[in-house]
Predict the structure.
Amino acid sequence: MTLVEVGPRFCLNPIKIFAGSFGGPTLYENPFYVSPNQIRALEKRKKAGKYAKKVKAKTRRKMHEQSNPLEPDEFADMWRE
């Protein structure tokens, strides 16, 4: 009799172990577990911060353009007939 591995190996990463089947007092809780929802929320906040920076830069640019207007170009109508 020999032992043959049939499928791929997998590793279980327990999050919580309860005293009952689906409830009861918690016997073990993984302190390093981060839920996928928390990860998605962090990524969303990073993207929101990036967008806010773009909007702020755009408004600063508009203010700069208004305070420093371009002088009229003396050659602008040179090619018009």
Observations:
- The mean pLDDT is 89.
- The longest strand covers residues 26-29.
- The chain has one helix and two strands.
- The helical segments are 36-67.
